[in-house]
Amino acid sequence: MTKEADGLRSDRRRIHLIDEVRGLSIILMVFYHAFFMLGYFFGIEFLAKAQVFFEPVQPVFACLFIFISGISSNLSRSNFKRGIRLLGIALGFTLVTAVILPRFDITGAEIYFGVLHLLSVSMLLYALLKKPLSKVPTTVGIVVTLVLFAATCTMQTGKLFGFDLPDKLYEVGYLAPFGFPGDGFYSADYFPLLPFVFMFFAGTFFGKLAADDKLPGWWYVSRCKPLSVVGGKTLIIYVLHWPIIFLIGLIISRF
């Protein structure tokens, strides 16, 4: 996906390191989802074990992907348009996985608030808050948002800053997108606003340096063109990899 196709400005040097890291992140994400779906849905035992082995590093490349999406939002012509478009795609995933697939007795793949939901809402929030946030010094913004990210990482377990949160927050189903999943809540891909919106906003603050061409020179040097190409087509890859993996699983299950 080119910058123009993704709504990104093209009047500056291409930041190849961002494309390459984003490309690596989406490749790792595809492998992780393949291990999960083929291992647990189609019963391929060694892939299920691979997914368990992969589990500890999954938050690392997911956070990299979210952080870089935040950087890209500082290079965008219109975060509102990007956010609306991505929200439509995210809701399409919910429709297919939570409404259509269960009608064919395919359950467990429901995505109610995955990474696309998170990124779309984050983009819309940034579109609304960009002007006041632009007044915050870059270093202060990065530090504060990362501290808030670390502080809210425990919310899904019922704690914040070491204190227990009220149980009532986890009994209201519609608060799951905010980071309060109840006992009965399940989403195959789950990235709530808290804490991940803070990782996104940390990326937007860092993105000020990218927008002003103030990153070190080695960020603009291409080291691995295939990764850079993949990093420019992450949305297409993300949308297509789910049905492709599922189709592979169906084919394998027939043998």
How does this structure look, described?
The chain is mostly helical. It has one domain. Helices cover 60% and strands 2% of the residues. It has helices spanning 16-41, 45-54, 58-73, 79-100, 115-133, 138-152, 193-211, 225-231, 234-253; strands at 159-160, 163-164. A two-stranded antiparallel ribbon has the order 1-2. Strand 1 (159-160) and strand 2 form a beta hairpin. The protein is globular and about 55 Å long. The model is unreliable at 1-5 (pLDDT under 50).
Walk across the major sheet and give the strand order: 1-2
Total number of helical segments? 9
* Domain count: 1
| Helix percent band | 55-70%
What is the alpha-carbon Rg in Å?
A: 19 Å
Overall body shape: globular
Q: Which regions are unreliable across 5 or more consecutive residues at pLDDT < 50? A: 1-5
Terminal CA distance: 36 Å
Descriptive labels:
255 residues; mainly alpha; 60% helix
Secondary structure elements and pairings:
Blueprint: H1 16-41, H2 45-54, H3 58-73, H4 79-100, H5 115-133, H6 138-152, E1 159-160, E2 163-164, H7 193-211, H8 225-231, H9 234-253
Antiparallel strand pairs: 1-2
Brief summary of the model shown:
This protein has 9 helices and 2 strands; from the N terminus they run ααααααββααα. It is an all-alpha fold and 255 residues long.
